[in-house]
Specification:
The complex is a heterodimer. Chain A is mainly beta. Chain A is built from no helices and 11 strands. In chain A, strands 2, 4, 5, 9, 10 and 11 form a 6-stranded mixed β-sheet that branches. In chain A, strands 1-3-8-7-6 form a 5-stranded antiparallel β-sheet, with no helix packed on it. In chain A, a hairpin with a 2-residue loop joins strand 6 (55-58) and strand 7 (61-65). Chain A is globular and about 40 Å long. By secondary structure, chain B is mainly beta. Chain B is built from no helices and 11 strands. The N and C termini of chain B lie far apart (36 Å). The chains are: A mainly beta, B mainly beta. Chains A and B meet through strand 5, strand 9 and strand 10 of A and strand 4, strand 5, strand 9 and strand 10 of B.
């Protein structure tokens, strides 16, 4: 079974601070996706990382895929209250394209 | 930007009743999915659908569940006899490629409450 574990589960920081969210697995994933979910809404895709060691930047968000493709991180620089939300990592299972989701990290950025 | 539309946004039903959750995927997408999220738990895969048939389903997707694409635009999830534990957010998603490299587009979800 391919599981994705996210840490921390909850993060509360002040506006302007940096934060890092982690997504780890004991299994290799062909790719990993990061989503953000607002309360009462569906997950919204932020980025997909495919190559081991890959780094992708989306404004103040930096996504990294581990060399062994078993882990990923999301780093937010100078967080803003608009970054508040539930951040989910997800990856396709070994067979087929259905996604396995991590449990999420709830981020609260206080003004 | 194209959206996946789900209706209703909230459905309350009595245990044992049938419910149909509706989704309109993005028009040029060919692969359709249902996921659910029980309050406080992970998002879980239910079923994938391609070329008018189920391509994959999870152990959650038992005989009480069915999916259908009744016309060229709608994609529905039916639960025949709802149980209390079916209470969850149900998300429809679509993609235009079999691979997940481009990621899915999820709808806003239907909150199903079984009482």
């Amino acid at each position: 079974t391919q599981l994705l574990e996210q840490s921390p589960q909850f993060l509360s920081i002040q506006e302007g601070e940096n934060l890092t969210v982690y997504c780890n697995s004991s299994s290799v994933f062909s790719s990993l996706q990061w989503y953000r979910q607002e309360p009462g809404e569906g997950p919204v895709l932020l980025v997909t990382v495919v190559t081991g060691g890959e780094v992708k930047k989306l404004k103040r968000l930096t996504f990294q895929f581990g060399d062994a493709r078993k882990d990923s991180s999301l780093h937010i620089t100078a967080a803003q209250p608009g970054d508040t939300g539930l951040y989910l990592c997800a990856g396709p299972k070994a067979a087929g394209n259905k996604l396995t989701f991590g449990g999420g990290t709830r981020v609260l950025v206080k003004p | 930007e194209p959206e996946v539309t789900q209706t209703p946004s909230h459905q309350v039903t009595q245990m044992g009743q049938e419910v149909i959750l509706r989704c309109v995927p993005i028009s040029n997408h060919l692969y359709f999915y249902w996921y659910r999220q029980i309050l406080g738990q992970k998002v879980e895969f239910l079923v994938s659908f391609y070329n008018n048939e189920i391509s994959e389903k999870s152990e959650i997707f038992d005989d009480q569940f069915s999916v259908e694409r009744p016309d060229g635009s709608n994609f529905t999830l039916k639960i025949r006899s709802t149980k209390l534990e079916d209470s969850a957010m149900y998300f429809c998603a679509s993609s235009n490629r079999m691979t997940v490299l481009l990621g899915y587009t999820f709808g806003s979800g239907t909150r199903l409450t079984v009482v």
